[in-house]
Amino acid sequence: MKKALALSALVSLSLAAAQKTVTLAWSGAITGPTSDAGASYAAGVEDYCKYANAQNMLPGVRLNCVVRDDQYNNANTQRNFEDFVGNLNTPIFLSYSTGSNLQLKGVIEETKVPTLPASYHIGLIDAPNNSYMFLPVSSYSENIVALLEYVAKKDRGAKVALVVNPSPFGRDPVVDARKAADRLGLKIVDVQEVGGNNLDNAAMLRRFESQGVKYVINQNTAGPVANILKDAKRLGLLGKMQFMGAHYTGGEDLTKLAGDAAENFIWATSYYMYDEGDRPGIQLVKKIGAQYGRKADTIRSVHYTSGMLAAAIAVEAMKRAKTDISAAGLYKGLTSMNGSRAFNPGFTVGPVTFSTKDHVGAESLRLLQADKTGNFKAITGGQRSQMFQLVHPLR
Amino acid sequence: MPASRFTQTGNYRTRYAQDQTIFATSAEQLSLIVLVLVLLALPLLLPKTLLRDVNLIMIYAVAVIGLNVTTGYTGLINIGQAAFMGVGAYATALAATRLNLPFFVAIPLGGVAAALIGTFVGLPSLRLKYLYLAVATLAFQIIFEWTVGHLPLLQQGGAISLPAVQVFGIRDTFLNHNRFWYYLILPVLVLMALLWRNVLRTKYGRALIAVRDNDRAAAAMGIHPGVAKLTAFLLGSFYAGVAGGLFAYFQKAVVIEDYGLHISVQLLAMAIVGGLGSLPGAFLGPLFIVALDRGMEVLSQWLGGQNLFPEGVDVATALRPLAFGLTIVLFLMFEPRGLANWWRLSRMYFKKWPYKF
């Protein structure tokens, strides 16, 4: 008996020794600006990583799950990147904000480490230095252009206002939106910048009203949009204007902050919603969230799903890399995700596809509208913006 | 002549020239040389991530010396130092990418651009004082952010990537980045500190202090307070511009978020904690604030891992800003002269040891 125990201990030890440890690391805003989204995103990455270990998704490989707060500070992100890539040898970088990713483009190109940002800024995959950046889902620009297409179908010639965040994150889609609006016969009559400190939007909304604006498209985070919606409700403008927005404007965060003022808000995103329990990805989100004891609010957040998607793509790339779990191996793994080998973890409306030329993962998106209960219901099927290809051809 | 060149046992100065020497004793001179030698060897001793923090401390120290020039030595409150850093960073980026100038020309050019803008922004100081001037510089911070955010030339605040630098055949790469920039930033910091130390010994430097202490008395002594104030803004923003240029190269790209109001507040905190109107304070302040931030990061990570708090309560959310705010309040209340005063007291202690008085 003693001999058998000793033997099994020896076997276990040798198996453990044979296991390779690979770091799966994320750097983002758990505190500081946009941490409302970042904290849930971090939880998603961390939980999926733990789940992958628990499920032994990568036989012979133990994932070292590292989630680090960069406080939305670019210098901290660079420090984390240096630590992850330089010291922990992570073969893939899961990152967060627009500014830090734009700043890191050159270094990422130099180190050849594939990077999956939480920012869906199209400039990240624009030349130059764009070989190793991969957007997990469709870009903000495509979200906005898809919303413009929806408006054009419904109300050709309508007057539209854009409300964007005063940052590279907010400003970037404006150029593409203007080009698309011109082609679609829409008039963008105003572009306003609104940050997180927008306590009173009455003047801006009254101006939109006097300009005859019927559609207000937001490229922002949920907080400022919620304030706009509450002000619009107070001014009795909700029925007169249709409010819409790109990925980071909507979801649970918006309904939580805006309450019933969020009703009818139209939102463009590639992700499935928490209440779409028939989707395998959402079932997995609920299962993992419960398994790791997350709060209901965290599990319901679309950003929790987003974090899981990023981690799932990384793990899948590792699976495909087989024995070569290096940056080069993962790059090959990522770029093999196309055609019959597309990756579909079920978190998004379409599969994740990448190639050496295609750096947008889940390209399909849906438009959803908030109902009376605050839930977002799909008003379109999975689709791609036709116009976006024309106004912003990639490579 | 003193009894010994290595100990200061009394004041033996008989000429103004002796009174203006930087070092009172040879021991002080020697200790600085030893310090610089230790600093030169530091990259060989520190891990890479810590070296990055040291580089940041040095860059902030350049900016804080500048802030000390305007606020500490001349008494002009400035809440827009990060914007001056930003002017320097963007000017450096344009010089490097549009004019293809090498970094050793682009960075000083950034300093000159910031100095020009700084002098212009300093014009209200001829009429305004105290809180009013603080608001004027705050306005510049906002104008700067808005302007950058709307200029296509500056990518609307998006990133302007800087070219990789090469010195004596050694290229700045991912692997040597922190060490490479350490050896470039350190001499700049030493030069800038020496420059300010020497300006202080001139009549122009003393004029700034006189204006801070009492501008009417200074005017009565023949000092032009307006010129002195504009000189302070010119010099202070030059330092900020150079710091901005260094930061741009160190970060490899210029992004507007790096030069926001929160950074101005942080620089002001560094100047206060270090000790306003003190050169050692300009080093100690950044060192303390960056170390505090790193310390809080480690502490909150550790606390977070102890399962002491329910899920969703992020310790870091509270700890880091709390520590930052509390430090400033405590320093203002109990040590308004900052860490520089502790440094002075420690030096005095060792100088007088074993005697108490």
UniProtKB/TrEMBL annotation, chain A:
Family to which the UniProt record says this protein belongs: Belongs to the leucine-binding protein family.
UniProt-listed InterPro entries: Leu-bd, Peripla_BP_I
Domain Leucine-binding protein, residue spans: 21-374
Segments crossing the lipid bilayer: none
Organism for this UniProt entry: Deinococcus carri
Residues annotated as signal peptide: 1-17
This protein's UniProt keywords: Signal
Protein name listed in UniProt: Leucine-binding protein domain-containing protein
PANTHER family on file: BLR6548 PROTEIN (PTHR47235:SF1)
Automatic annotation (TrEMBL), chain B:
Topological type in the membrane: Multi-pass membrane protein
Superkingdom of the source species: Bacteria
InterPro entries for this protein: ABC_transp_permease, LivM-like
Subcellular location: Cell membrane
Signal peptide, first to last residue: none
Alphabetically ordered keywords of this record: Cell membrane, Membrane, Transmembrane, Transmembrane helix
Principal subcellular localization: membrane
Membrane-spanning intervals of the chain: 21-44, 50-69, 103-123, 180-196, 230-251, 263-292
Pfam families named among the record's database cross-references: BPD_transp_2 (PF02653)
Name of the molecule in the record: Branched-chain amino acid ABC transporter permease
Organism, as annotated: Deinococcus carri
